Amino acid sequence: MRKKISLGFLTVLSALLVFSNFSEVFASHNQIDVKEKITLYKLDLMQDVFEIGDNEITYHWIDLDSVEQSVDLIVTLDEVGTISSVKEINISDEELEKIQKSIEQKDNKITTMASPVPYKLNGGMTESQFLDPHTYSRHQFDNSVSSTCSRTRYGRHVGVKEIRLQTINAFDEKFSSKQGDNSTATYFSKNYNTIISQENGVSTSWHRVIKIDGAEATHHPLCK
Fold it and tell me: N or C: the chain end with fewer CB closer than 10 Å?
């Protein structure tokens, strides 16, 4: 009897150890998947927008046939603000493979065709280049203060108006989400081949324009 109990115990123990090792591998695999999806959907560009918990967003891209495609996502942030889960909504494994391939093809095209920064003499400090006085006061070139992630500032000779138009009409990345008041916010992002922000402080080659229900709301160099 003792022998049977001992063998049974060892069998159960072995199974638990195997399951434990499998669980570690499975968890590791899931973590890799999350990181891959963060990269695939460029979710670092929205890190400042996401809130703790579940965030429902739509990721948009232009495929190689110049057709705009999209996928709905639930992006979950843990208590410390780290993306812990990225799930596609109503997407099969076969559809996901097609989405990944299409986005990767788009990324390869963008990587080899980064846009030059539009030049405008003193554009970053000219109010008429900006959407409105509020945007101008927050993001104008001012070398007496630093450009920060909470208040990025344009470079002195950046063509701000042209960069706004390019970011909307020829975006590299685009996201949309429903807001608490049931409006829709759309975030357009574009990467340039050199820095668009002032040298004093945060440096970035990324630009963002935000629209609310289709109307342009604000724009700024994007800290990432």
Answer: N
